[in-house]
Amino acid sequence: MHNKTNLIKKIILVGLLTISPLLALEEANIKSEMESKTQNITNVLQNSSLSSQQKKEQIAPVTDSIFDYKIMSKISLGQNWKQLTLEEQNNFSNKFEHKLKNSYFEKLELYTNEKVVVNELKKVKATRIHLHTDIVGSSESYEIIYKFYKVKNSNDWLIYDIDITGVSIIQTYRKQFTEFLATKSFNELLDSL
């Protein structure tokens, strides 16, 4: 019976991961929702009874609801994005999303009870908001800025980039991909992801 219950839980979780729509945030709720989501992730990470895979499975729906992986993919490829067919764009987006998630979860596994402090929300443009947070450890702290954009024709906001101690994740990938595509093909880039 225990195995059947676990199987049902896994099926439901997989279903949520594959059909989970973007649950974008409204501007007035960004800070409070991010505080709540950050606390949820922290609680999962601190739960020593969960395996690494179980933690990943519980955190993925939280991150999937606020990150726009398609926009992140588009920005990371820059001008090269426009040269791709719709199928190539979708293939790249799927592989890049997978790469981002793996990178994110690898970093989360380094978590050792640091405190996450959600600081201030700054509206830098009518359609851009930066949420400043700090990761505070026993000996050091560093700033993370979550960059949100306003989804067209809605009141919703999604994350399109993250700055970690002043370095943009998406701009870093964009530079790497531009250099890669200067000498290699798009299919080789796909294979490298």
What features would you highlight for this structure?
7 helices, alpha+beta, MlaC/ttg2D, 52% helix, Nuclear Transport Factor 2, Chain: A, 193 residues, Periplasmic protein, disordered N terminus
Give structural notes.
This protein is α+β, with helices and mostly antiparallel strands. It has one domain: Nuclear Transport Factor 2, Chain: A (Roll). It has 7 helices and 6 strands. The chain is globular and about 45 Å long. The N and C termini lie far apart (40 Å).
What is this structure, in a nutshell?
With about 190 residues, this protein is an alpha+beta fold. It has helices at about 1-20, 30-45, 50-65, 70-75, 85-110, 170-180, 185-190; strands at about 25, 115-125, 130-135, 140-150, 155-165, 165-170. It has one domain (about 1-190): Nuclear Transport Factor 2, Chain: A.
